[in-house]
Structures are given as C-alpha cells and as structure tokens.
C-alpha cells in the first residue's frame, strides 16, 4: 500500500480549463467529467488556479440576477490551488485529507499539469488495497 503513488490513481484524460473560458463552458466540463472542480492553466499547462462547482454556482446566481452575461473563469477561480506530485504516496495524501481540504487535486510535474486526483479515487484504492473491500476500480483512475 505504501508504494501506491498518486500517478497510479490520477486521471490524465480530463482537459483542464484555460484562462478566459466562459463559466457556462466550465460548468459543462465539470458535469461531463463528473468532478467537483478543475484546474485552470495557461497555454503551457502551468496551474494558475482552480475552479469548483461552488464557485460556479455563486457566480452564475449573481450574474443571472444582475443580468450581467456570462462571467469568465478568471473572475471566480481560486488563485492559490494546492497541487501534488505524481510521485507522492497515496497514503501520505490520504492522511492530509480532511474537512475544508480540496476534493480534487491538480497533479503537477515540474510545474506543469499532468492530471488530477480525486478523493473518490483515493477512497476506492484504499478500500481495495487496505481494507479488503471488493471495491471496483474507480472509473477515472489511470490503470
């Protein structure tokens, strides 16, 4: 279990959000990928921020109430996201999870986004490997 790394459970098929993306497109990406948040990157895949369902809900409520049009992700994203390394042990990441912590973590290598890891993927792997629970492999995991 200790040898299981973030790279073993991360998703690498989700397209990140680019700066300037309209919030309605962000919402479509969140719903399509069944995730609660996505990293926001520049053209070189450097992580600049993170946008969550909660950010989108609030911004869309406010913009529709005031008839302000479609906001862009830059207006609502969190600009200091927590990132993790692909080499980090899943056990170490799991020990850091808790109330108020992100549900989705951008995975970076040399400052560039290479994937995301979710609490659900970590839970699934911990259940399968450590608890003897016959949990199915999480749909988004790499292998």
TrEMBL record:
Keywords: CBS domain. The keyword Kinase does not apply. This is CBS domain-containing protein. Residues 15-61, 80-127 form the CBS domain. It comes from the Bacteria. The keyword Nucleus does not apply.
């Amino acid at each position: 279990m200790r040898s299981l790394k973030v790279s073993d459970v991360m998703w690498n098929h989700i397209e990140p959000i680019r700066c300037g993306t309209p919030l309605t497109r962000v919402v479509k990406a969140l719903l399509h990928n069944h995730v609660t948040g996505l990293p926001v990157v520049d053209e070189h895949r450097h992580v600049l921020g993170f946008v969550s369902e909660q950010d989108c809900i609030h911004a869309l409520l406010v913009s529709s109430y005031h008839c302000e049009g479609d906001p862009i992700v830059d207006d609502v994203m969190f600009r200091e996201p927590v990132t993790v390394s692909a080499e980090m042990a899943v056990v170490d990441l799991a020990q850091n999870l808790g109330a108020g912590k992100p549900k989705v973590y951008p995975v970076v290598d040399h400052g560039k986004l290479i994937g995301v890891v979710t609490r659900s993927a970590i839970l699934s792997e911990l259940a399968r490997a450590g608890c003897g629970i016959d949990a199915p492999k999480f749909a988004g995991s790499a292998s």
